[in-house]
Amino acid sequence: MIIAKRIFKSFGDAQILKGIDFTFERRKTNLIIGQSGAGKTVLLKILVGLVAPGSGEVWYDQINCMNLNKKEKRHLSMSVGMLFQGSALFDSMSVEENIRFPMDMFTNFTEGEKRDRVDYCLERVELTGVNKKYPSELSGGMQKRVGIARAIVLKPRYLFCDEPNSGLDPKTAIVIDDLIKDITVEEDMTTVINTHDMNSVMEIGDNILLLNKGQAEWTGSKEEILVSDNQYLADFIFASPFLKQLREMAIQSAR
What we know:
This protein is an alpha/beta fold and 255 residues long. It has a domain at 83-155. It is built from ten helices and ten strands. The strands form two sheets. Strands 6-7-8-3-9-10 form a six-stranded mixed β-sheet, sandwiched between helices. Strand 9 and strand 10 form a beta hairpin.
């Protein structure tokens, strides 16, 4: 699991995060949601270690990340996988080269071990046989799956996903959601997802943190969303008439 303890962060006079406390649970899809400017991206960057908090602590299981030296941070980074918003694949590299890049950087695996791991990861994201293709030859959804394969190639304990469904059609977005959810459970990872996609929230939201102006407005699961009496949450999640009707039906059923 990952625990955020009293995370504060300011840039100049602007206070972005105002004392965030939250536990991101193991083997669950933990979602960070909120309006633009709520602090989601800053919190994600702090959790990953790309930005230092003004104050507070981030714990990876029993490890306080604030107390690590450079060597210890590098070692911990090998336990972290990252799926970037735009996939962030290297255009000049083949699919296989993109996926094996973290192994080239951080391991002493043999060429055979690297090939086997690439093949396994491609099979896991249902892209067997595309090893020699280049990103430009793949659809947006396929590129996302290659990004996932690269993110899990080092068998990380922690997986971070920044807007994984950005730019995808609804059908492909569901495929990516299901894949992330399945991998989280099967690979025994703590997964943290920063998303604007309300379909993702209602499909795979095991453990959700809603930010509002840098504060934790609401926490809970996708099931609890349907019956919550938090008006800010309701207005944010159920913006469309269809979703409002769905919530009203759920409330009626719960009575």
